[in-house]
Amino acid sequence: MRSLIPGDWYILFTCTDCKTRQIMFPDLSEGRADLRATYKVECVKCRHVGKYESEELERYQHPPNADPMPIYGIAFFAMLSLLRSFGWLRHPGRISSVRRL
Ligand SMILES: [Zn+2]
User: Fold this and answer.
1) How many percent of the chain have pLDDT more than 70?
2) pTM for the whole thing?
3) HSE of 10 in the Cβ direction (CA atoms, 13 Å)?
4) What is the pLDDT of residues 36-50, one digit of tens each?
């Protein structure tokens, strides 16, 4: 069991079998990403493995002033394709600010 972190963004999907809405993964781009991929995910509840186009996914920001909310679980996912990663490689600031002694 994990918790949602207030202020953080998540990508949600709805299981096509049991209709459970659940977290697919944290959205590290904070909602700015252009998701273009097909994701294969196993439902944490009914174990149904479904394929979801990025258009079917839902962005969700947990309200910054909310308490951490327990969620059902984070499904493991396999990316069949991922065009233009959504921000994971776009944080060079931290690295370039490291100075040599
Ligand atoms: Zn399900």
Assistant:
1) 64
2) 0.61
3) 23
4) 889 999 998 999 999
